[in-house]
Specification:
The protein is built from 19 helices and twelve strands. The chain has helices at about 55-65, 70, 80-90, 95, 105-125, 130-135, 140-145, 155-165, 170-180, 195-210, 220-235, 250-260, 280-290, 305-315, 330-345, 355-370, 415-420, 425-430, 440-445, and strands at about 5-15, 35-40, 45-55, 180-185, 215, 240-245, 265-270, 295-300, 320, 380, 395, 400.
Length: about 450
Amino acid sequence: MPTIIDLTSADVRFPTSRHLDGSDAMNTDPDYSAAYVTLETDGEHHGASLVFTIGRGNDVVVAALEALRTHVVGRRIEDLDDVNELSRTLIGDSQLRWLGPEKGVMHMAIGGVVDAAWDLLARQAGKPLWLLLAELTPEELVSTVDFRYLTDAITPEQALTLLTERAEGKAERIEHLRAHGFPAYTTTPGWLGYSDEKLVRLSHEAVEQGFGMIKLKVGNDLDDDVRRLRLARGAVGPGVRVSVDANQRWDVADAIEWMTALAPFSPYWIEEPTSPDDVLGHAAIRAGLGHHGIRVATGEHCQNRVVAKQLMAAGAVDVFQIDATRMGGINELLAVLLLAARYGIPVCPHAGGVGLCEMVQHLAMVDFVAFAGTTEDRYLEYVDHLHEHFTEPVRIADGAYVAPTRPGGGAEMLPASISDHTYPHGIVWAEGTTDSSTDLRENEHR
């Protein structure tokens, strides 16, 4: 088994703000970016992952990754238990933990390193990460989860019982994924910076491509949102779901009032209606909108499994949206999938950005195979954006993610994409070149 001989990091940024790709009510000038981490070994394989930011956040995350170097270099990656031990060691550095116990930038950086270790394991096994995880026994899956702070919601013994029950039919679900993929929805039509004409055109195209749901950004102006929801609903018809995303824009009362005004257009869910840390606020919004049939969704910015537990246990959410790089890595995200299975809450992961589609598809698929056992009311977000920069870009067919086949966790970028977009000296930044690959207007027909 190999030994890790180096941890390298790169600041990779794409100038998406030039065309308002990714624009929403709170993030008006995003440059989709990746703090990219590689675990080099003295063996045949390496491990790669990333932490997603929208620009200058990379400065901080790259520094955090470098601060973890001494915990990583020299380690042997022998089996899955070593990834757990690595995770516990990184989280347990008391001087770094003081900056924010299992939350914030350090926690996201730890997640990047943990995910790179999982990528290394999947490469060594010659399997895509989703399959490596899906084929674990219930006992092995339970061993990946840190139950500290969770046992009031689910114990290891209860988890083993649940996963043992869900193991029935696992082989058939793996084959179903290979044959049919995982259901997707698209946010491509919905950015706030897009014209009405573009919204309608892309909404029509989403239906033609087989998507069962689209999502629109809302929250800047109510009259604009009413007009845009009317256009979107008219474009997709009554048989396609339309969800909306406020990106944390509102206070509780504002969220209820705003969404009541949008209720005639039958929004399927309201995503991030208020602060992602406000468990009681989400519960109040859910109570205020329930009679309209509007679900409450959040989780993209949920900082750890403890807040996830509270949102679920308090009945504050109808849909939980994990993000591939927000928490402390795959081990913690598996804990969240376990909690969601315990409470019967659908997981509909957040994606888009840089590499998030490539990474989180593995978690959505293992959720289906090993935790939830169903795809009912479950969708994985998709945006046709920046996929060409990865060694295995996501593939969509008939509105569904095609199951990855290449070994690894999906985050490995092409060397040329890294060098060209490294900030500030990559050619895209040094020369101020307009990078057409970052413009959805160039990508939307791909």
